[in-house]
Amino acid sequence: MATPRRGRFRVPRRRRGELLTPAFARELRSTLLQVQVAASVTIVLALLGAALITGLSVRP
Question: Is the predicted pLDDT of residue 1 greater than 60, yes or no?
Fold first, then answer.
């Protein structure tokens, strides 16, 4: 006999096939691409800023 789950309101778990629809996969890929671009731009700007600060602080 199965024991009842705790809690009054339980949302049934979705199977993997129900969650990964083609539309959701496209949206997820788009979001991941935006995150990658934003991270790359942030890293490049940080490196350029560090190089600029290092270049300005060097005295002959």
Answer: no
How far, CA to CA in Å, does 40 sit from each of 6, 34, 47, 51, 53? Answer: 45, 10, 11, 17, 20
Q: For residue 18, which amino acid is it?
A: E
Between CA 38 and CA 41 the distance in angstroms is 5
The DSSP symbol for 51 reads H
Q: Is the pTM of this model over 0.70?
A: no
Amino acid at 57: S
| DSSP conformation letters of 11-57 | PPPPPHHHH--HHHHHHHHHHHHHHHHHHHHHHHHHHHHHHHHHHHH
DSSP code for 6 = S
